[in-house]
Amino acid sequence: MTSIFIEPAPAKLNLFLHVTGKRDDGYHLLDSLVCFAEYGDVVSATRRDDTAITLAISGPMAGNLSDGNPDDNLVMRAAKLLQTEGKVSQGADLTLEKKLPVASGIGGGSADAAATLRVLCKLWQLDIPADRLAALALSLGADVPVCLGAKTVLMQGIGDELIDLPELPNLSLVLVNPGCAVATADVFHARVHDDDDNGNGRDFTDSDLWDRTVHFNSGASLAAALQDCRNDLTLPASGILPEICDVLQALAREEGCLLARMSGSGATCFAIYDTDDQATNAANMIATEQPDWWVQPTRIQSHDNRALSQIGASFPA
Ligand SMILES: C[C@](O)(CO)[C@H](O)COP(=O)(O)OP(=O)(O)OC[C@H]1O[C@@H](n2ccc(N)nc2=O)[C@H](O)[C@@H]1O
Ligand SMILES: Nc1ncnc2c1ncn2[C@@H]1O[C@H](COP(=O)(O)OP(=O)(O)OP(=O)(O)O)[C@@H](O)[C@H]1O
Q: Which Pfam families match (predicted)?
């Protein structure tokens, strides 16, 4: 019997993203409310007797990763890092079902790397201290630590400081990407004044604007509070890719839209709708009008289904 271990790699959403400073090494300090969608990629792993690590990629977005060197894939990089760190003498056959658009602000690669770390800790029965695992995650990318826990948090620092928050209400969401990749580094670099700021400069937002104690009981009350926040990367990202403005307008004009905003460094935008039906209708309308866009209705990941997903699964193959 071969055991297969399976881990979801859910889409990350920045419900707001404030840039609060810049470090000497060029990385930006953030204050961001991060949650995870039910929709995402899937990583699975089976054991090998030798030390080789293989990766097979399938799924609707697999083609967008086929050009690069497979060893550059964040799944492979995470696996090799963990194998070295854990002094593991086994290998693994990994699969990645790629459903999220690549380089699109919803952390697809980061979610895949984090899911790989989780799945291989189970497969290889590693007991790595949480702070060591978080440091490994950060070495793979600023978004990987938040994707490791895959729960609602306030994210600060460069993505390495994670503060637990009360669970958010169930949200009816639509994610839309105009079909163009945007590089995160280009968006940060395109910020006005970015080059002459020292970390306390005039174009940075104050941090700690979010009340960490409030428990929202509806999507409407959360969306109302989010109106006072922004994504500070929307302007630079839409300067690079003006279609982002079209996506935001398309989401906002559908019935029941409570909030439409870009996630991360874009170009994917999300909208919160009042009901699941309104989200489904909005997704259908936008997909019909814009057949080249990626349009995905989903919900926020709740504690219940997250608990299930974190256990993973082991069954005969
Ligand atoms: C914008 C966010 O998506 C918000 O969640 C993340 O901060 C991005 O995280 P990520 O894609 O994992 O980013 P990385 O791969 O670590 O960094 C890519 C590039 O983005 C810029 N970068 C990234 C994160 C950060 N806090 N400040 C930055 O300035 C840097 O130029 C860096 O070279
Ligand atoms: N498994 C993977 N999935 C997606 N991208 C990957 C993967 N492995 C490597 N990459 C590379 O990583 C880069 C960032 O991709 P990713 O999809 O994580 O961006 P993103 O959604 O903008 O992330 P973030 O929101 O964390 O900034 C791309 O240039 C892509 O080629």
A: GHMP_kinases_C, GHMP_kinases_N
* Ligand 2 pocket member 10 (CB < 6 A): no
Alpha-carbon distance values, 293 to 5, 217, 298, 306 (Å)? 32, 32, 16, 28
The answer to the question of residue 79 being in a domain is yes
Residues 117 and 192 in one domain: no
Q: How far is the CA of 259 from the centre of ligand 2 (A)?
A: 25
- The binding site for ATP comprises 101-111
Q: Please tell me the residue having the least CA distance from ligand 1 atom 13.
A: 142
The answer, as to whether pTM is greater than 0.90, is yes
**What does the block give as tokens for 202?**
């005039």
Q: Which domain holds residue 13?
A: 4-165
ipTM above 0.95, yes or no: yes
Residues 117 and 176 in one domain: no
Number of domains comprising the chain? 2
Compute, in degrees rounded to 10, the torsion defined by CA atoms 119, 125, 127, 132: -40
Residue-wise pLDDT for 101-125, tens only, equals: 999 999 999 999 999 999 999 999 9
Domain assignment of residue 77, yes or no: yes
